Amino acid sequence: MKLYKSTKEPEIYHYFNANKEKLWMYRHKYYDATGKRKEKKKSGFKTEKAALKALLEVKAATLRGEKSYVENDQMTVGEWLDTWYETNKAKWKKGTQVQREIIVRVHLKPLLGDYKLQKLDKQTYQRVFINALIGNYKPSTIRAWHTIFKIAINSAVEEEILNRNRFTKVTIPTETKKKKEAANFLTPTELVTFLDDAKQNENVTHYTFFLTIAYTGIRRGEALGLQWKNIDFQNNTITIERTRDVIGIHTPKTTNSYRTILVDEMVMKQLETYLKWCKKALFKNGRKLQDDLSKDDTFVFIFEHAADPIAPTSPIYAFNKILDRTGLPKTTIHGLRHTHCTILLNRGLNVKVIAERLGNTPKMIMDVYGHVLKELEAESVSLFSQTLQASEAKIGANH
Predict the structure, then answer these.
(1) Rounded distance between C-alpha atoms, residue 279 and residue 11, angstroms
(2) Where are the alpha helices (DSSP H) in 30-138?
């Protein structure tokens, strides 16, 4: 391709493409941070003025010392996310690595990957990413992915590939935690229906799993993390000392989460029945539990065929199948925990006792279940009056 130098600017040229169309380009020579001579060029401009404007922007950035900005102007968002991940992953914990890799690969790159990193603006980001997720994911989830993207963009700013982070004031919908938690529970009658269906239609592992959570209020991850040494059949207690999820095994959520709780005798009997089943499943796979269960670190909830710990997502599918079969309100497994707490509150159990049982603080119980406590307060006023009326107390307004 033959180039014709502009008479106005020595780094501007025009040329003719295959269709004989006259186009313009610039070729800017400069030295990088190591003193090596480099050239930045770009073609395809319709007018000489447009090519000159782009050249002046590149020259200005070069003079400001923004060599990385100049050299990476064609980098896509996807290319930068890959670079950012590979460069930084060794600094992160294994769980963080897995989480961020999934977010980048599954959520960020499909929607944003093809955009030029330096050209992506706030409005486009809001439209093609944030707005596209609204309605399909929880606001808290969208906010978490947005935070990861901002971290990656901040890194690009530090590397001088971007001048600033344009995505710090993006609008993300909010959700009222109290309302969300308030709706995520079953009534006692609905819970009985749920557990009856689980017993009739689900395998023994899932039924025992749901029964244990419903009667103890422990978290899903805490149930997944239970080992046989945590089950004390003599004292009817369960000890929480770890959690398990798709990333791995962790310490409990908070200091308060380490706890030993008393368990209903009916649940302990089901766990004894389930223990016998587990021994058979393990035996089929050439394994067995220790004679002294207090020293056995085998996970309680296992698959039948391989006798390995159940996948953290396995109970979710079973849970949703039960809701579909029974027509019960759309709740989550965590809703069983809320159900447990709500029933205890309605029975008048002390908030501090409930908090210790759930591994929370009394303040957390008050914050999340304030609606239940207000209803109980109103009910107590009525009960007090009814009690006095039943005693035929002759009291009332003084006329």
Answers:
(1) 80
(2) 48-63, 67-71, 77-88, 94-102, 109-112, 122-125, 131-133
Task: Write down the mean pLDDT value for the chain.
Answer: 85
Beta strands in 129-276 (DSSP E): 231-232, 237-240, 243-244, 249-250, 259-262
Strand order in the sheet with 22-31: 4-5, 12-16, 22-31, 37-45
Q: Give the end of a domain, one of 68, 90, 105.
A: 68
Q: Is the pLDDT of residue 180 over 80?
A: no
- Give CA separation, 299 vs 46, 117, 310, 374, in Å: 68, 46, 9, 40
The number of residues making up the chain comes to: 399
**Is residue 46 domain-shared with residue 138, that is, in the same domain?**
no
Contact, 220 vs 359, CB < 8 A? no
Answer yes or no: pTM beyond 0.85.
no
- Contact between residue 32 and residue 67 where contact means Cβ atoms under 8 Å apart: yes
In terms of Cβ atoms closer than 10 Å to its own Cβ (0-12, 13-18, 19+), residue 161 is: buried
Q: Is the pLDDT of residue 231 over 90?
A: yes
